[in-house]
Amino acid sequence: MEKVSSADGTTIAYERLGSGPKVILVGGALCDRHALRPLADALAGDFDVVTYDRRGRGDSGDSTSYAVEREVDDIAALLTEVGGTAAIYGHSSGAGLAAIAASSGLPFTRVVLHEPPYGPDDVDSDEDGGQVLELLREDRRQEAVELFLMMAGMPQAVAVETAAVPGVEDLAPTLAYDFAVMGHGAPGGRTPVDLLRAITPETLVVAGTASPPFMVDAAHRIVTILPTARHAELVDQDHVVPPEMLAPVLTEFLSR
Q1: Quick one: CA dihedral 94, 96, 97, 102, positive or negative?
Q2: Which domain holds residue 228?
Q3: Fewer Cβ in 10 A, N or C end of the chain?
Q4: Residues 94 and 211 both lie in one domain
Q5: Residues 172, 176, 178, 182: is their CA dihedral positive or negative?
Q6: How many CB atoms neighbour CB 112 within 10 A?
Q7: What dihedral angle (degrees, nearest 10) is formed by the CA atoms of 140, 146, 149, 153?
Q8: Distance separating alpha carbons of residues 99 and 121, to the nearest angstrom
Q9: What is the pTM assigned to this prediction?
Q10: How confident is the model over 142-178, as pLDDT tens digits?
């Protein structure tokens, strides 16, 4: 593990694996850098892969107040640390953060957005999100995680089991950060059209056919909005894809 200082002085922990073209992996809600380690291992034969703990998670620090722009600064610090340019892959709300970072003009060679959970434009997700945030304010972390996972399409029994896994409760406060990321550029978690149109690198939008329908629909909407984007459909895969299925798709795109 290595560390780099972000613009506001927050320490960001990261790891590098492999050699070749550089790619930064950005995890989603309730994930630290270890969640993407299997994917990093699968890519390390062809790429110099960076996994990191988003602020407030794992071995990274945090600031007294949160702003989405600080998470973009964290990615900028990693880019500088690895030489100034890299591709970026984001999963779930990490894809939302990758999209924000790419729209800001950071020098990415390519962008991969894997099922950013943008909601339909005619549905407002603020109500459910507000309930999760209220549970966090009351320090009812496990209940907050359960509700969040059910919002994401997970069956209740599985959500309850997942929320009870050791370590998950520790990450619960950062759900507020993920809500902020997904609401950045459009209220209520809707698709941020202007933000997406500001992404200039070639972009791959990945979605599994067995994923929650709103995530699949979001992927198709992004491709229609973003001229540089193309779609990769993973047949019979859901939101979490085995590395052996995902890595070849990323390798083909990132090696072009």
Answers
A1: positive
A2: 2-121+179-254
A3: C
A4: yes
A5: positive
A6: 26
A7: -140
A8: 18
A9: 0.96
A10: 999 999 999 888 999 999 999 999 999 999 999 999 9
